[in-house]
UniProtKB/TrEMBL annotation:
Keyword set, alphabetical order: Isoprene biosynthesis, Nucleotidyltransferase, Transferase
Residues at the site labelled Positions MEP for the nucleophilic attack: R152, K208
Domain of life according to the entry: Bacteria
Name recorded for this polypeptide: 2-C-methyl-D-erythritol 4-phosphate cytidylyltransferase
Membrane-crossing residue ranges in chain numbering: none
Top-level EC class as recorded in UniProt: transferase
CDD domains: CDP-ME_synthetase
The gene coding this protein: ispD
Catalytic activity, EC: 2.7.7.60
Keyword Repeat belongs to the record: no
Function according to Swiss-Prot or TrEMBL: Catalyzes the formation of 4-diphosphocytidyl-2-C-methyl-D-erythritol from CTP and 2-C-methyl-D-erythritol 4-phosphate (MEP).
Metabolic or biological pathway, per its Swiss-Prot or TrEMBL entry: Isoprenoid biosynthesis; isopentenyl diphosphate biosynthesis via DXP pathway; isopentenyl diphosphate from 1-deoxy-D-xylulose 5-phosphate: step 2/6
Organism of derivation: Metasolibacillus meyeri
Single annotated GO MF: 2-C-methyl-D-erythritol 4-phosphate cytidylyltransferase activity
Similarity comment: family membership: Belongs to the IspD/TarI cytidylyltransferase family. IspD subfamily.
Amino acid sequence: MQYEVVLPAAGSGKRMGAGQNKLFLPLLEKPILMHTLEIFERDHHCTGIWLAVKPEEKAFIEELLERYHITKVKGLPAGGEERQHSVHSCLKAMEQVEIVLVHDAARPFITQEIIAQLAKVAYEEGAAIAGVRAKDTMKKVRGTVIAETIERDSLWMIQTPQAFRFDLLAEAADVAEKVGFLGTDEAMLVERLGHEVHIVESSYENLKMTTQEDLLFGEAILRKRVN
Ligand code: CTP
Ligand code: MG
């Protein structure tokens, strides 16, 4: 199943505390952003990449694309204040396609198998998101006191990619913008329209590089994969 991918890359990486966009930090000498881009560059089902960038970082990113021979990027629209705005800016710039994936540029370990499964379920059902089962006991806490222990069997930790029929996500993003709804993922926008979203079991290795220790885990995953 062919698809185009939107990669929001216009964050500042505050929790990483590196004083720059964390996507430029290296994992085994290659910037995180380039690890992610190479996955989609190599996936034959991916027919186009849309990268939301900060305008002041655009020239540097274009240099990186050349240096790492990334050829599938169709546009680098300006990102927005929040991640959702950055994604929307790409959706507005795109031509109509059948299936669109949204994937955090900060998740450089997604596999082609999971991508293919998501694209397939999105084609059949409209919306499919990657997630893994919660491993720890989950409790709701008020202040410092346990309010409730939540039954774990139905709890999933949600990741990206999130895959959709393009017109469904485009409509959901337009509606969210119109009413000023801000979600923490794309699925929330589609759920609001009353549309079912399906889960595809992903991998615990599909980490988002968020804080400093993630870089250590990330390098360990890369070392394991090259050996
Ligand atoms: N992102 C974006 N536009 C924003 C905020 C985030 O395109 N306004 C992107 C980030 O570049 C990242 C992805 O969305 O690839 C996931 O966001 P997150 O991990 O939160 O990254 P940052 O926002 O950069 O980090 P932080 O929240 O710690 O500042
Ligand atoms: Mg953020």
